[in-house]
Write a structure and sequence with these properties.
Length: about 450
């Protein structure tokens, strides 16, 4: 039993839901089981945020939760524009990281927006969260601070608290900060400032954790982290699968169901998948007729997505079912014939892996991966030794061919596609927490990372 006190700085934490919630939640659960005292410094969910109270019930009662609200200037600006009639309610706001367009006025607006959102729109959370932790933990100072991003503002909170509490800082990157294909800068000055912030955080950290080997390699090219850096992947918790039906497929009777869980957004748009369905319809009408693609989760620009499907004549092969609570999503994955993961539609091999992929590994279902050859997603699938098909994410012909192979595989004798993936056990969160504890011990001892 450790008894040491660890402070987690994690904006994404229950009752919020989404891919970023599960890693800090599971680490907290398994650290508490090992006897660590854990305090979580997190946000206070705003009205309209997606919640999953089932995830909140998984937070161990021994963990102390300190919530600091976010005064989001972009929400306030959006509300003011709606109130003044400049933008109708429900219309999409331009994201803070959207690239500048051609007009001088719009460019200046983008530059100003960027200035108040570096490293991200959680910038205003930094002083509030730092002050809240300083007051809440007076007399019960942490022995170590663990900050996890995104949002990367959490690391700046961690840096401030490191100085206040004189405790080692361990920083955890679930996504890239610099070099993230989902982030565009309105100015070169903004990019340089963001890069300087990343250097400051990495320089202050006793240990640096990356969640894919590809991301660690990218960090090593950019920073002199030496032996302070290590990879600890995302994962799954076997407890989450207790009581669920066995992996059997057949979620859509009479069809081969390919199911995607999670959000479609940005460079994970799904537009090339729609084009691939149109190609398959032309080249393999029987295979197309047997296929059903189901989306469980939100789709940014859903109206446009549906319009594209209609224009291509493939709307009949789709079902947009909406998001599910986490437990229901896991059960539904078990009954899907094939699970779909989308990498970013970007020229370079991805260094990010969607968090849901690790839960896919535990379901015992085959996977269709639209991702780059040699990227982090393919690397993870091969390490787990699960059955999968892969196609480049922006190649409709290759995706159509992969869909045809998926349909043929499901027509094979029963059990031909049911393989549990012997390497998936390495991604259990209890085993990943062993690696995290090693990291903490090295931070306390001032030792470099272990291999």
């Amino acid at each position: 039993m450790s008894g040491r006190h660890v402070l987690f700085v994690a904006w994404w934490f229950p009752p919020l839901t989404g891919g970023g919630v599960h890693r800090p939640l599971q680490f907290v659960r398994h650290l508490v089981r090992r006897g660590y005292r854990v305090t979580v410094l997190t946000g206070a969910p705003a009205r309209g945020e997606r919640r999953d109270d089932g995830l909140l019930a998984k937070v161990p009662p021994e963990a102390r939760i300190v919530r600091a609200p976010l005064a989001d200037p972009f929400r306030a600006w959006d509300a003011l524009k709606r109130w003044s009639g400049r933008r109708p309610a429900g219309a999409a706001a331009a994201p803070a990281d959207a690239p500048a367009n051609g007009s001088t006025a719009s460019r200046w607006r983008d530059v100003v927006s960027e200035a108040i959102s570096l490293p991200d729109r959680w910038l205003s959370w930094i002083p509030v969260a730092t002050a809240k932790a300083a007051l809440a933990l007076r007399g019960d100072e942490p022995d170590l601070i663990f900050s996890t991003s995104p949002p990367h503002s959490a690391h700046l909170v961690g840096v401030a608290l490191r100085g206040l509490f004189r405790a080692p800082l361990v920083v955890d990157f679930r996504d890239p900060w610099i070099g993230n294909p989902f982030r565009a800068y309105a100015s070169e000055r903004g990019r340089r400032l963001d890069a300087a912030l990343e250097r400051r955080v990495v320089g202050e950290a006793a240990q640096v954790i990356l969640n894919t080997a590809a991301l660690e390699r990218a960090f090593r090219r950019r920073h002199d982290v030496g032996a302070r850096a290590r990879t600890i992947a995302n994962g799954f918790d076997p407890d989450d699968f207790d009581g669920l039906p066995p992996p059997a497929g057949g979620g859509t009777p009479g069809a081969v169901e390919v199911a995607h869980f999670g959000q479609l957004y940005g460079l994970r748009s799904g537009r090339f998948l729609l084009q691939a369905l149109a190609r398959l319809k032309e080249t393999d009408a029987d295979g197309y007729a047997r296929l059903r693609v189901v989306f469980h989760g939100s789709i940014d620009g859903e109206a446009a997505f549906r319009a594209q499907a209609d224009a291509l004549g493939v709307a009949g092969a789709l079902a947009i079912a909406g998001a599910l609570p986490h437990a229901q999503a896991l059960a539904r994955q078990r009954t899907s014939d094939v699970l779909l993961v989308l990498g970013p539609e970007h020229a370079d091999a991805e260094v990010q892996v969607p968090a849901k992929l690790y839960e896919y590994l535990a379901t015992g279902r085959p996977i269709l991966s639209l991702s780059r050859a040699g990227g982090a997603i393919e690397e993870t699938l091969r390490a787990a030794a699960v059955p999968f098909e892969r196609a480049e994410p922006d190649d409709p012909d290759a995706i159509a061919a992969a869909l045809a192979r998926v349909v043929r595989r499901r027509a094979a004798p029963a059990g031909a596609d049911a393989a549990p993936g012997p390497g998936a056990e390495a991604f259990r969160y209890d085993r990943l927490t062993d690696r995290l504890v090693e990291c903490f011990e090295d931070a306390w001892a001032g030792r470099p990372a272990r291999g």
